[in-house]
Design a protein that fits this description.
The chain is built from seven helices and eight strands, in the order ααβαβαβαββββαβα. It is of the alpha/beta class. It has one domain. It has a five-stranded parallel beta sheet, sandwiched between helices. The N and C termini lie far apart (38 Å).
Length: 222
């Protein structure tokens, strides 16, 4: 790693990243998950879990505690979200806040700009082609599931609007594909519980997604 942080953009590139031996299996699992190929996702997950822990939770604080407890030595962890996840603000996650990837990926644990603090959230733009050891992936209501499949949404003004353009739908699903494949060692997925008093975050926007992840076999945090 270059000694000066200003010279460190080269060491963030995928070409010099140490790809995990688990990467191929994790990528296959995420593809099956997002393609709603339940049988394949369940089978792949059972082979992954002994070596690559994945958990789900409705409690963001519990997710942060878990990921901190998993990391050993200098292993890096961080908080991730879709760039369209605009209703995570009640959890102090604002995806519109610009993150400097050099500080986020390379600063040490005592620096509030680093990923270690689990305060600044990186989106698919900042982490494309880069890796963490462990991740907290936050799943907002921009991508929701139901019995009929995924539904795609964009928050405009004061409400969610459906995304109908096929290219924008594909982009949104690929954003989650990126987020779910950034960790070398393991990850926890936080699905908010929603809030009955907030029309932009009713539990119904999130519950089906959490249930779907459970059905795939992802264990919940205790």
């Amino acid at each position: 790693m270059p000694q000066e942080i200003g010279d460190c953009r080269l060491c963030l590139h995928l070409a010099v990243s140490m790809r995990s031996f688990r990467a191929e299996s994790v990528s296959a699992f995420v593809k099956a998950l997002l393609d709603r190929d339940a049988a394949s996702a369940q089978d792949l997950l059972q082979g992954i879990l002994p070596r690559y822990p994945i958990r789900i939770t409705r409690d963001l604080d519990a997710a942060k505690v878990w990921v901190r407890s998993q990391a050993r030595g200098s292993e890096r962890f961080g908080l991730l979200a879709s760039s369209r996840a605009l209703r995570l603000k009640p959890y102090a996650i604002d995806v519109r806040t610009e993150v400097d990837p050099v500080h986020w990926f390379l600063r040490e644990r005592d620096d509030i700009r680093s990923s270690f603090y689990l305060e600044d959230c990186a989106t698919e733009f900042q982490v494309q082609g880069l890796e963490l050891d462990w991740s907290v992936v936050t799943w907002d209501a921009d991508l929701r599931t139901s019995e009929s499949g995924w539904s795609y949404h964009d928050f405009r003004g004061k409400k969610w609007q459906s995304v109908n353009a096929e290219d924008r739908r594909l982009y949104l699903k690929n954003a989650y594909r990126v987020l779910l494949t950034r960790a070398r060692q393991g990850m926890v997925i936080f699905v908010p519980p929603g809030n009955l008093e907030d029309p932009t975050r009713p539990p119904g926007f999130y519950d089906a997604t959490f249930t779907y992840l459970q059905r795939m076999g992802i264990p919940s945090l205790q």
